[in-house]
Amino acid sequence: MKTLAALVFPEFQTLDLFGPLEMFGDLDDEIEVTVVAEKAEPVVSRHGQYISVDKTLSQSSTYDLILIPGGRGTPVENKNSAINDWIIEAEKHAQFIMAVCTGGALLATTGLLDGRRATTNKQDFIWSKPFGPCVDWVTQARWVKDGKFYTSSGVSAGIDMSLAVISSLFGNETAEKIALETEYDWHRDPDWDPFAKHHGLV
Amino acid sequence: MKTLAALVFPEFQTLDLFGPLEMFGDLDDEIEVTVVAEKAEPVVSRHGQYISVDKTLSQSSTYDLILIPGGRGTPVENKNSAINDWIIEAEKHAQFIMAVCTGGALLATTGLLDGRRATTNKQDFIWSKPFGPCVDWVTQARWVKDGKFYTSSGVSAGIDMSLAVISSLFGNETAEKIALETEYDWHRDPDWDPFAKHHGLV
């Protein structure tokens, strides 16, 4: 059984979190999902829904998989040291760390992506880059894998990245089965990214 | 300002709900989303996350838009009369009623789809049909519109349907803008459905 910590903070982007959780959640015999946050109270999404917290950050930083959503609540401009320190601790144990959308900017602020390739939301790409001045930002990619770090483009791209992680962990047949069951048109190519061009990045 | 009631019940399918809420939620100047359930306590999704309830069914059935997810918790085999009666009441006021995945089977049990065209999850298509013996079930469709009723195929199909509803309510430019912002590869054709063939329905 693998453990997955899904980090939430006020105004996290709804689909950044729940797209991946739909995919990983289908493997409930293989993966135990824990929603983690700084405080124990329910946390509001960007779209106003409140989600319960299973464990606070201080309770554990030991998980196999870490999922970091983005969204307008992403604590990057006013750095949240509790969240930053937790990510740095969690990285030591984690097999894979995944960041969706501007969650990549948050991950970059920890320094863990320094010298690594990563991507982020394409609409907010220029805004995101300064949070990781030593990151090799990839302008055109649905998602990027570098070592244990997976970073995806904006919002729905997290679903494609999650299926790639599932394929890597449990085999391609398992990932294809989940895509089929969720009737999801999985973009299997990490370089597929029409949105980069739209935002003038290529 | 339009109002949208998102119905939840224990073990609703995560993406059936949060895919559409990501799309409608981006219009927070135009649409007010209310999570509704039979009881006031937080409701667990199919994948173990608890979501807070804004209003109980008995508090109101007057909303412009109704969203009904599916999932293995869909109360169809053991009919839930509180939910059934609420849908029948809500339909009288609603401009559009949307059902995602096996939420279509739930909507069918109310009789409101009798004599109408509708679709549902393709993997569970044969299982769903008897819940609406007088429904004209469409075997190959991403989503189907008949009058005020929109029904979609499984899980991720709800996102495509939601964008079609947004296009109808607020114009195509608005729907395209949301698809772009969420970096979502919107299937604009309601007849696009490779999953029907996979499940031997065509």
Explained architecture:
2 copies of one chain form a homodimer. By secondary structure, the first copy, chain A, is of the alpha/beta class. Chain A has one domain: Class I glutamine amidotransferase (GATase) domain (Rossmann fold, 3-Layer(aba) Sandwich), CATH 3.40.50. Helix content of chain A is about 30%, strand content about 20%. In chain A, strands 5-2-1-6-7-11-10 form a 7-stranded mixed sheet, with helices on both faces. In chain A, strands 3-4 form a two-stranded antiparallel sheet. The first copy, chain A, has a two-stranded parallel ribbon with strand order 8-9. In chain A, strand 8, helix 4 and strand 9 form a beta-alpha-beta unit. In chain A, helix 1 packs parallel to helix 5 and helix 5 crosses helix 6. The radius of gyration of chain A is 15 Å and the shape is globular.
